[in-house]
Each structure stands twice: as C-alpha cells, then as structure tokens.
C-alpha cells in the first residue's frame, strides 16, 4: 500500500490543477477571485472497497508586486493526515507568482517532503509575445543541482496558475463536448504537454458533508502513464456561479481512484450561489 500512497497528495493537487485557458489567450480579465481568497479540500483514496480520508490541500491568493509588476502570489499546501503518515509522510508546498493582467506565471517553486525524500524546484518564466523562456533550478537532498533553460514557441503555464485561469473561462459560450486546448509544463519531467479539456454540461453534486452544489462539468485529457490509468479518466465539477470554484473532482488512477471535495471557501469574490439549500 505504501507504494500507492507515495504520490497521493501530489496527484490530488494535480487533479485540481491539470486544466487551463487557451495557451494563445494572453490577457485574462480576472472576474472570479480576489486577494485573500482561500479554498480547501479533503482528499479521499479508494483501495479495493475502502475509502480513506488520506489528506488535505489548501489554496490561497495574495496580491503583491514582482519585478515592478502587479502580481498574484498563489500558495498551495498539501499534506497527508497524521493517521496516514505511518504509511507515507507528505508535506508539499507550492508557490506561483503570476502577472495580474495575464495570469501567466513569472515564478514557480515547489518544495517536496515525502518521507526521507526532499526536493526543491524553481522555475523562472520570461514571456516574449507568444514565446516562453523558462529557466529551471532543481535541487535534491541526494544528487547534484541541475540548472537548465527551456524555450517554447507559445505561452505555457505551471501547475498553480492553471487553477485560477480555468475559473475565468466563459463556459456560457461553450457548446456541449466542445474542446478547449492548453499547454502545461509538468515539473517532474520538465516537459511541455499539449492537452485539452471538454465542457460536458451541468450537473448537481452532493459531497460527503451533505452539501449540494450546481456545477459545470468538464473533463480534461490527462497525461497517461505511471499515475493516471486513462486519458479521459477524470471529471472536474466547478461551481455554477461567478466564483467558478472547483467543488468536486473524481479520477481513476493506476491503482484505485481518488475523490477531492471542497471543505472550505473563505473570502470569495461573490457569494457561493451554486449551493443548493434545502
């Protein structure tokens, strides 16, 4: 079981992040979140017939200035629960600084602590038109430091900023099963992936805490391999209101499946009108 838990929290965070706006869409007029917003999630792992509350993830946003530009500081913390630590201890922290006008990343950092494993990855983004230059600085507790420069003929984004870009897509203008392309650099491989998601429609979902929400339903194309079983094995439910907060995510992985459920929404830009009151 330990081998299945090893990347559980990172996978769960990735479930929330593996979607984005069109890679050619440079300017994003943010209308869904504000300074001080915080949203949190419970992560459940299914192994056989057992559902286990394995960990938590929390996202928060702050306004700041970076390189003389107005920016957002996005912070994500993911951890395994104390009851899960005996199988695998996870304390992951991710930061991303994004241009306030474009919601494209300028800086990204991930600090990974999983049992005895430690890693620190830093990305420095430079956008020139539709091209991206990316300097990576990766350090490990064991092994040498690796610095590299990557170039892309388009805008690309990281695992954090996509969480906020997806919320600013106008789903009212999308048709059922319409596909939306995006590009992402995944930090474990330093590779660019050209993916897409499709808008499936609207659906009401109920969480384990008994709360119900009206949601927009989307399905991303995943990176099939060691973690995800199928390219289309994930469904993401966004709140059908002006906040567009991810409410519920379900996905099949190589061994078992994962569910991620909203447990906290603080200082949102608008009231969460999508919640269904009895």
How do the strands and helices of this protein lay out in sequence?
Elements: H1 2-5, H2 8-17, E1 38-47, E2 50-66, E3 69-80, H3 82-85, E4 90-99, E5 105-114, E6 117-128, E7 131-140, E8 146-152, H4 161-165, E9 179-186, E10 191-206, E11 212-220, E12 234-239, E13 246-252, E14 257-266, E15 275-276
Antiparallel strand pairs: 1-2, 1-14, 2-3, 3-4, 4-5, 5-6, 6-7, 7-8, 9-10, 10-11, 11-12, 11-15, 12-13, 13-14
Could you characterize what this model shows?
- By secondary structure, the protein is mainly beta.
- The protein has a 15-stranded antiparallel β-sheet that branches.
- The protein contains four helices and 15 strands.
In short:
With 278 residues, this protein is mainly beta.
Summary tags:
single chain, 278 residues, mainly beta, 15-stranded antiparallel beta sheet, 8% helix, disordered N terminus
- Cα(first) to Cα(last) distance is 40 Å
The total count of strands amounts to: 15
- What's the rounded overall pLDDT mean? 78
Q: What is the multimeric organization of the chains shown?
A: single chain
The chain-level structural class is: mainly beta
Report the uncertain regions. Answer: 1-25, 224-231
Largest sheet: 15 strands, antiparallel
- H and E string: HHEEEHEEEEEHEEEEEEE
**How much helix, percentage-wise, in residues?**
under 10%
Radius of gyration: 18 Å
Number of helices in the DSSP assignment: 4
Which outline best applies? globular
Range of strand content: over 45%
């Amino acid at each position: 079981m330990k081998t299945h838990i090893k990347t559980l929290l990172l996978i769960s965070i990735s479930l929330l992040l593996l979607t984005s706006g069109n890679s050619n869409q440079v300017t994003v007029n943010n209308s869904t979140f504000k300074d001080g917003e915080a949203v949190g999630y419970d992560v459940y792992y299914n192994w056989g017939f057992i559902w286990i509350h394995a960990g938590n993830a929390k996202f928060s946003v702050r306004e700041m200035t970076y390189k003389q530009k107005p920016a957002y500081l996005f912070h994500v913390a993911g951890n395994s629960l104390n009851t899960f630590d005996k199988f695998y201890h996870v304390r992951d922290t991710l930061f991303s600084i994004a241009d306030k006008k474009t919601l494209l990343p300028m800086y990204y950092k991930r600090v990974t602590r999983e049992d005895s494993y430690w890693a620190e990855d830093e990305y420095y983004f430079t956008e020139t038109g539709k091209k991206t230059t990316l300097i990576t600085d990766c350090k490990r507790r064991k092994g040498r430091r690796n610095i590299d420069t990557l170039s892309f003929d388009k805008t690309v984004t990281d695992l954090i900023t996509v969480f906020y870009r997806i919320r600013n897509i106008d789903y009212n203008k999308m048709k059922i099963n319409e596909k939306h392309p995006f590009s992402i650099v995944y930090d474990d491989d330093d590779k660019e992936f050209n993916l897409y998601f499709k808008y499936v429609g609207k659906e009401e979902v109920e969480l384990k805490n008994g709360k119900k929400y009206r949601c927009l339903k989307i399905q991303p194309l995943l990176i099939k391999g060691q973690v995800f079983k199928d390219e289309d094995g994930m469904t993401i439910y966004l709140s059908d209101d002006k906040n567009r907060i991810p409410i519920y995510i379900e996905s099949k992985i190589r061994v078992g499946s994962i569910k991620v459920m909203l447990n906290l929404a603080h200082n949102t830009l608008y009231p969460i009108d999508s919640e269904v009151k009895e």
